[in-house]
């Protein structure tokens, strides 16, 4: 009996360690490829070196946006933000999503059913998922899934740390 419990403990620690490694320390799983046909609003582009991004972003932003990490669920105050406004990219201020398209997905991550304009973002295959990136600075933002609400049926599952909220009422 005692041995079983010890085995279970070791298995749990191992699984937890692997999960933490994949979530927090893993290097980018895919090389960066910007699709040749990707466009951005007003053809705006922000390109910086890795060193410049490290300086500009916080550690958590850098880990998610430039290293394709995923924030801890429910860690972002934006997950349950419901004021009227716009969500912009934390790296380049590109307007990404409108509050009107935000919904409670129950996942612990800010979720939207469509981007503000179609070319605010672009997508790339990421294993069995579809990655979402900022079309202006190529930052990793999250993933899009096909189990969202009407009218699109899409769920843009975003990392709150990759976005800033601009309230419509604030001056
Ligand atoms: Zn951006």
TrEMBL record:
InterPro entries: Met_Sox_Rdtase_MsrB, Met_Sox_Rdtase_MsrB_dom, Mss4-like_sf. It comes from the Bacteria. One of its GO terms (molecular function) is peptide-methionine (R)-S-oxide reductase activity. GO terms for cellular component: cytoplasm. It is an enzyme of class 1 (oxidoreductase). Keywords: Oxidoreductase. Its EC number is 1.8.4.12. It holds the Pfam family SelR. It catalyses: L-methionyl-[protein] + [thioredoxin]-disulfide + H2O = L-methionyl-(R)-S-oxide-[protein] + [thioredoxin]-dithiol. Coiled coil: none annotated. Residues 50-168 form the MsrB domain. Signal peptide: none annotated. Transmembrane segments: none annotated. One of its GO terms (biological process) is protein repair. PROSITE patterns: MSRB (PS51790). This is peptide-methionine (R)-S-oxide reductase. It comes from Fibrisoma montanum.
């Amino acid at each position: 009996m005692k041995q079983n419990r010890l085995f279970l403990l070791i298995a749990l620690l191992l699984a937890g360690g692997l999960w933490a490694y994949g979530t927090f320390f893993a290097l980018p799983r895919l090389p960066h490829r910007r699709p040749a046909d990707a466009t951005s609003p007003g053809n705006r582009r922000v390109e910086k070196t890795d060193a410049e991004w490290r300086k500009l972003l916080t550690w958590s932003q850098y880990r998610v946006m430039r290293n394709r990490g995923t924030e801890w669920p429910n860690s972002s105050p934006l997950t349950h933000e419901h004021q009227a406004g716009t969500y912009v990219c934390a790296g380049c201020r590109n307007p990404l999503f409108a509050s009107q398209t935000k919904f409670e997905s129950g996942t612990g991550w800010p979720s939207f059913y469509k981007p503000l304009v179609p070319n605010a973002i672009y997508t790339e295959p990421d294993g069995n998922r579809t990655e979402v990136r900022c079309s202006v600075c190529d930052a990793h933002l999250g993933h899009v899934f096909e189990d969202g609400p009407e009218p699109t049926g899409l769920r843009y599952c975003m990392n709150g740390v990759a976005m800033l909220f601009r309230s419509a009422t604030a001056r």
